[in-house]
Design goal:
The complex is a heterodimer.
Chain A lengths: L1 E7 L3 H13 L3 E7 L2 H14 L11 E4 L8 H8 L11 E6 L4 H7 L5 E6 L4 H11 L1
Parallel strand pairs in A: 1-2, 1-3, 3-4, 4-5
Helix pairs in contact in A: 2-3
Chain B lengths: L1 H29 L5 H59 L2 E6 L4 E4 L2 H4 L12 H6 L3 H15 L6 E8 L5 E12 L5 E10 L1 H19 L3 E6 L10 E4 L1 H7 L3 H4 L14 H12 L4 E8 L5 E12 L5 E10 L1 H50 L6 H31 L7 E4 H11 L1 H7 L2 E5 L5 E4 L1 H17 L8 E9 L2 E8 L6 H4 L20 H11 L3 E7 L3 E9 L3
Parallel strand pairs in B: 12-14
Antiparallel strand pairs in B: 1-2, 1-5, 3-4, 4-5, 6-7, 6-10, 8-9, 9-10, 11-13, 14-15, 15-17, 16-17
Helix pairs in contact in B: 1-2, 10-11, 11-16, 12-14, 14-16
Chain lengths: 136, 571
């Protein structure tokens, strides 16, 4: 079981669904959510700058990322997240979870080293079983 | 000669008589009888000598005269002979046919040309002028005879005429006839001599050239002929322009001949194209360019121009010909077409994007619904009515999901014209499909017969062929006849370098008489089955065609359906 995962999606129902399915399949202890890329980056910045004071804060081990979001979409988030600014988080793996069907999106996602999979919504227990295997 | 001889004899007789009489008188007067014999003898001797001398004088004088006459005659004879020879040679050399017409007697004679040129044998030729007139083409004879008689009546100076003359084989030859008159002392025309020249070849050549010339004069394309030499890398001087050029450029022939056509150098001309033209001229090579040119009135037009070097028999460049066409309209249409294609491409791109966004926006909430329904499965529900409602909700949601997934497949296929192909074992494909359909196969237990002996490997996109065969198999099961056990036969064979896959069932069939053109259409349904969306065969056809294949259907209601799929087996 993972300790913490981050779900980034603008749709509250999707987030609710994520939480419920993840809890049911005991995929992770803790589930953090962000409504868009910017919120997620802020979250990581907080970790980054509070890190030194106390003992290390737990980092999410996996990110579920939607692509189409207002304010900051998935691609922009990945661009920032892939930059040197967030170097210390580059071991965190990302799963793109989307309802897009554009084949170009799949190709594009392969350019980011941290993206380990490109999955179609909705999140399901079998999907999580599959990811568990993959992350072993 | 004879009169001269008589004259000489008479003179001699007269002189001899005179001498005889004078000597007789002298003998009578001066000579005695005893001396008579002696004197007679002397007289005879003197007589003979005297007459002999006179004879000698007369004859030698005559002789001289005769020699002179003979010389003169001989010279005349030589001249005549030479003249005859010359005539023969000339007649032969010109191959002219000579005729001689004594006008008053209407006696007409021909030389050998009448046979060698026109084919008439000697016995076929009459010796009067009617025979001649008779052979002249009816269309030419009136004009010709008017001119001829006005010449004979000496109203005109010269006579020469062209007409068609009928040959022995009834064909006509074009001839040029030239003649002159011989007049008597009173100046009256008595004889006419003429020479006929066969000009059929020249006439035919002339007509052929006239015909060829019409190509240039009547052509809608401009044609220019220029000199061979060009100086200072310019277009050589023009020696001819056809009327179409004047219409196109506005320049009359007289304005432009002798000048270098600098027409193709306007401010908006394509300088690269002009360079190409000048280089070709320098290298004496053919070339084709398109550029903007100016008319005389400074109006722009787009011209397609070819420049072709022409070589003479000695293989030297003799001149250039240039053919030009005003392609302004063509260019305009081309530009409009390009614009249209750009717009269409953009529209297409926009539509594609629109379909992706739409599908995304449809799929996002739908996936939530599916996810939520999945969660419901594990929660026990006591209320029976709620259970029924949720079950209906579940079914509808999944049907909507299937529909959208199918549509999405169509969009992706349409957007992906070139796809990866690989060698695939046909048996393997079916194994995959059967595992996906194991539930239905277990339920209906169809008899499925394979024959992949002839072709067992196919060069194809694996995902597509799986989807195609899955669709066909699902259809076969879905539309099986209730009265008999479902039987499916799948075979492959090869025709040239194409692989043919035949998929045959004994199901309820489709009424092709009514529906042939709709079978593979989008949202076409032929049976009122609840889970039929009218997408399967559309998808199948799209996938087959994306891989460069074809699909055909044969079907009979209540007997069964046969699909024939054809794929190119080479890359």
């Amino acid at each position: 079981m993972l300790d913490q995962i981050l779900c980034i999606d603008d749709d509250p129902i999707t987030l609710m669904l994520c939480k419920k399915v993840i809890i049911r399949s005991s995929f992770s202890n803790e589930i953090i959510t962000s409504q868009n890329g910017e919120e997620a980056l802020n979250f990581f910045n907080t970790i980054k700058y509070t890190n030194n004071k106390n003992k290390p804060i737990t980092q999410p081990q996996l990110i579920f990322l939607d692509l189409n979001m207002p304010v900051m979409g998935g691609w922009e988030f990945l661009d920032y997240f892939n930059s040197t600014e967030f170097e210390e988080f580059n071991t965190i793996k990302v799963v793109v979870l989307t309802s897009t069907i554009d084949p170009e999106d799949l190709e594009k996602s392969k350019k980011y080293p941290m993206v380990i999979d490109f999955l179609s919504k909705p999140i399901s227990q079998s999907m999580l079983e599959y990811l568990k295997d993959k992350l072993k | 000669m004879k009169s001269k001889t008589n004259q000489v004899i008479i003179i001699y007789i007269l002189i001899a008589m005179f001498v005889a009489i004078v000597s007789h008188k002298l003998v009578q007067q001066y000579v005695s009888d005893e001396n008579i014999h002696f004197y007679t003898f002397i007289k005879d001797i003197l007589f003979v000598l005297f007459t002999g001398i006179i004879f000698k004088l007369i004859l030698s004088k005559n002789d001289d005269r005769n020699v002179a006459i003979f010389e003169k005659l001989k010279n005349t004879n030589d001249e005549i002979k030479e003249s005859n020879e010359k005539y023969d040679i000339v007649a032969k050399a010109t191959s002219d046919t000579i005729w001689d017409w004594k006008i008053q007697e209407d006696s007409f004679s021909w030389n050998k040309g009448i046979e060698s040129v026109f084919g008439y044998k000697e016995e076929e030729v009459d010796d009067n002028s009617n025979w001649w007139f008779d052979k002249i083409h009816p269309e030419d004879s009136i004009k010709m005879s008017i001119r001829l008689y006005s010449f004979i009546e000496q109203k005109t100076e010269n006579w020469q005429d062209q007409y068609r003359f009928r040959c022995a084989d009834n064909s006509y030859k074009y001839v040029l006839d030239k003649g002159f008159l011989l007049k008597d002392a009173t100046g009256k025309a008595v004889r006419m001599i003429g020479a006929i020249q066969d000009i059929t070849k020249q006439k035919e050549e002339e007509q052929r050239l006239k015909l060829l010339e019409t190509v240039i004069t009547q052509s809608k394309d401009s044609i220019i002929i220029t000199e061979a030499d060009s100086s200072d890398a310019k277009i050589p001087n023009i020696i001819y322009v056809n009327p179409a050029f004047s219409i196109m450029s506005g320049y009359e022939a007289v304005e432009i001949i002798g000048k270098s056509p600098d027409l193709f150098n306007s401010p908006n001309s394509d300088s690269n194209e002009l360079k190409k033209l000048l280089t070709a001229i320098k290298n004496k090579e053919e070339c084709l360019i398109e550029t903007i040119s100016y008319t005389k009135n400074k109006e722009e037009y787009y011209v397609r121009l070819s420049m072709i070097p022409i070589y003479n028999l000695d293989n030297e460049l003799s001149h250039w010909i240039s053919i030009q066409r005003d392609i302004t309209d063509e260019k305009k249409q081309e530009r409009e077409k390009e614009q249209l294609i750009r717009e269409l491409t953009q529209n297409n791109k926009d539509l594609k994007q629109f379909s992706y966004i739409t599908s995304h926006n449809l799929r996002a909430p739908l996936s939530n619904l599916i996810g939520l329904l999945n969660l419901l499965e594990d929660i026990p529900i006591e209320n029976q009515e709620l259970k029924e409602i949720l079950s209906g909700f579940n079914k509808s949601t999944h049907l909507l999901n299937d529909t959208i997934n199918d549509l999405v497949k169509v969009i992706v296929i349409k957007d992906n014209p070139s796809i990866k192909k690989e060698a695939v074992l046909i048996k393997e494909i079916f194994e995959n499909i059967f595992s996906q359909l194991s539930f239905q196969i277990e339920l209906h237990k169809p008899i499925i017969k394979f024959d992949f002996e002839k072709v067992f490997i196919i060069n194809i996109n694996k995902a597509y062929i799986e989807s195609i065969l899955l669709n066909l198999l699902t259809n076969a099961i879905k539309y099986k006849s209730e009265n008999r056990k479902l039987k499916i036969t799948i075979t492959t064979h090869e025709i040239d370098d194409t692989v043919v896959l035949v998929f045959k069932d004994n199901g309820i069939g489709i009424d092709l008489v009514r529906n042939r053109d709709k079978v593979f259409g989008l949202y076409q349904r032929f049976h009122n089955y609840p889970d039929s969306k009218g997408l399967g065969l559309y998808l199948v056809k799209s996938q087959v065609e994306t891989m460069g294949g074809t699909i055909e259907i044969e079907s009979e209601v209540n007997k069964g359906t046969t699909f024939t799929l054809t794929f190119k087996n080479r890359q």
